[in-house]
Amino acid sequence: MSWAGGTFGSSATCVLAPNADIMTLDGTNTWVLSSGERSLVIDPGPSIQSHLDAVSDAGQEVVGVLLTHHHADHSEAARVFAERHGCGVRALDPAYRLGSEGLVPGDVVTVGELEVRVVATPGHTADSVSFVLPSESAVLTGDTVLGRGTTVVAHPDGSLGAYLSSLDRLHALCSAEEITSIWPGHGPVIDDALGVLDHYIAHRRTRLYQVRDALRALHARAREGEPFPHDDLARAVVEIVYTDVDPVLWGAAELSVRAQLAYLTER
Q1: Which domains does the chain have, with CATH numbers?
Q2: Cβ proximity of 46 and 77 under 8 Å
Q3: pTM, rounded to two decimals
Q4: Cis peptide before 156 (omega within 30 of 0)
Q5: Mind listing the pLDDT tens digit for each residue in 221-249?
């Protein structure tokens, strides 16, 4: 499925950054939310001048920058872009803020008549948040939910326990507030929010079962005399569980397996 961004709802424009690769899919989605003659920019993305020019052209007067999380493909250009427009950067992590205002779950950020609600969704990173737009029946999820495929929960900053709780929180929120669309940080817009969240939750549970089975298999091999891979356990699990994934992605899969192993150890 090709994806190039575009205009969504009555307030949003997605400007696709030209930083496509195996981890960023088509590139980073920078979201410009406008009401009247003012705009908020979500995740300015990488420091690529042509992209920042396109983001500036997509909105009206930029009055604020918000970050879903700190990863460079979302945050790298935030400070430079905000300084260019004379506004602040609001983020959960103080290290990525510009100005005195941060973000706290439960905050409501407004631009004109548009209301943006901040929801804590840690797991992909410790500082991940999502933004609910009630008037659009949409939620911007950053990397917590992607438009295609599933996200990496990279141990130790990423936490599978926190991530599963965040998926449950998003599911409950979408159900209670009739949120139908997910506007992700990478990949195309999703028009079936609950369906995709059901898939994400089931996928994570299935992977956990597979990791448990892989550990049992490795222990069984050890009992038969094969060395147990104590020093490279995550890689050994990946080679059993992630045979359906392109080996190019096995490095990222190892990070997720480390998060899964940490989760199972805590239980």
Answers
A1: 6-200 (3.60.15.10), 203-266 (no CATH)
A2: yes
A3: 0.95
A4: yes
A5: 999 999 999 989 999 999 999 998 888 88
